[in-house]
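Researcher: We plan to redesign the surface later, but first we want a full-length starting point. Tokens attached.
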């Protein structure tokens, strides 16, 4: 089970540029919707897996890919609206991601 988080991070880094690439052609809700759909599908399918290997593969690949789609999309949109405050926008969005993880880790 210790392999899940590093696998998520590696796959997230691989898929990180897909969200901003889609953002050039579509509105922001398209890459976010794709990412969230991938995350939800991965969680749903991994709940039906019979073995540990299938669970690790489904969960880590889908979570990493989904987070990769969703992570930079709000940053790029924020940079477009506030081009002179890119550091503040990036910091605020990253703080939101971290704070949400912190809060929901206690709930779940």
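Model: Full-length starting sequence:
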């Amino acid at each position: 089970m210790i392999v899940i988080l590093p696998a998520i991070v590696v796959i997230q880094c691989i898929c990180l540029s897909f969200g901003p690439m889609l953002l050039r052609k579509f509105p922001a809700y398209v890459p976010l919707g794709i990412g969230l759909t991938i995350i939800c599908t991965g969680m749903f399918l991994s709940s039906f897996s019979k073995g540990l290997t299938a669970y690790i593969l489904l969960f880590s690949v889908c979570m990493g890919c989904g987070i990769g789609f969703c992570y930079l999309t709000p940053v790029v949109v924020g940079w477009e609206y506030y081009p002179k405050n890119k550091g503040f926008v990036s910091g605020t969005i990253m703080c939101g991601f971290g704070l949400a993880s912190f809060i929901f880790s206690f709930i779940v």
